[in-house]
Amino acid sequence: MKNALIILLFLFSNQSFSQIKILYKDSPPKIDGDISDWKSAFYFFKQTSTSVKSSNTLRYNFGFDEEHLFGVFKVSDKHLTDLAKDKSGSPRITFNDAIEFYIDTQNNSQKLMEDDDFQLIIDLMGNLTVFRGGDKYLIKVEEYKVPKDTVTNHFVMDYATKYEGTINNNADLDSGYVIEFQIAWAALGIRSKPNESFKIDVCLNDADEFLDIRPLTEDAIIPNYFFQSINGGSDFGFPNKWTNATLVGEASAWKKAKILIGHWLWIIAISALIVSTWLIVSYLRKEKEIITIKEKIFQVVGVKENLDAFQAKCREFILENLEKDILPSNLAENLNVSLRQLQRQFKEETDATPTDFIRKIKLEEAAKLLVEGKQTIAEIAYSIGFSDPAYFSRIFKKHFNKTPTNFQENAQKA
Predict the structure, then answer these.
(1) What angle do CA 154, 114, 125 make, to 5 degrees?
(2) E-assigned strands of 27-83?
(3) What digits encode the pLDDT tens for the residues 35-71?
(4) Residues 251-279: tens digit of each pLDDT
(5) Which of 107, 142, 146, 158 lies at a 20 to 30 A Cα distance from 166?
């Protein structure tokens, strides 16, 4: 009875999982080494080694969203130890108090790690080393049971660590440490979706007494040091022994709505940017075209708009009634003066008749239209109040010394 109870306690405290459920997280955890934002129940593992001063316990959990895989490990450890003086990127940080995380991203590896499998080692001090499986050279070397090579410098992830206690001090008892991370699915080559499956493994590395390991060989036995995976094994790195993991759940309706709104906001913002850019470019192009047209008109016609107030009012009335056959009497009536007074004022100021002025303004507008080149000569004639295009052409040639056709050709070459 006593033996049976001991076995049950052992099995209960040192669980071996055939599957780990990785739950969707509507609110991603802040990667800061604080486990308070992890609300779901933790998985539990207890170290069973007698070769260390005190056995560690591990509480761990995983989560995911559309962009990241999250993980957290809380280790209870009474003896915090940092043996490896060569830090990030070094395989020797495995001898520190550390967590090793393995993942078979495509769920397709058998006995050996392949090039889509990763091993991450994060120690309590925040040092990271990343391995990738499938090293083509080491696969051919029989003594390398786990052919892999470091890729730390090319692997992007966010992680944080916190510890409570003193490092390498055997005179006190420590509390332990927390490791928290997030890895972009893109870095792993995984498309996250509900029920997506892959294999993972977690190993607890525990060193309980400081010594200088730098002069030690790879095969040297380090006292008070032990490593063990969550399945109880001490020989790992083989995907066929890793635990199945499945993504469970999806975004809540509220988060989906926020994501959808966010997508639409991006679409609206990008559309607004495109439209505004198009409007600005069109405006600038139009302004440039107007400036170019004015420059051409000045070059070809020699028009200078330096009229006095009296002439400006006359010009304004003519332009407002451009398509009509305007008579000097119409101009006098608009200015509220007599025809004789209008004729006298034009004679004094311009040494021309009102009829000449009306014709000059109309022909200058015709010249602008010819430079723009959007209408035929006949259409231009009608638009400025001439009922006979042939008569318009004769008057135009008399004023500019060029026919409308020749004027337009010269203006387009200018």
Answers:
(1) 45
(2) 43-46, 57-64, 68-76
(3) 999 988 899 999 998 889 999 999 999 999 999 999 9
(4) 888 877 766 676 666 677 788 888 888 88
(5) 158
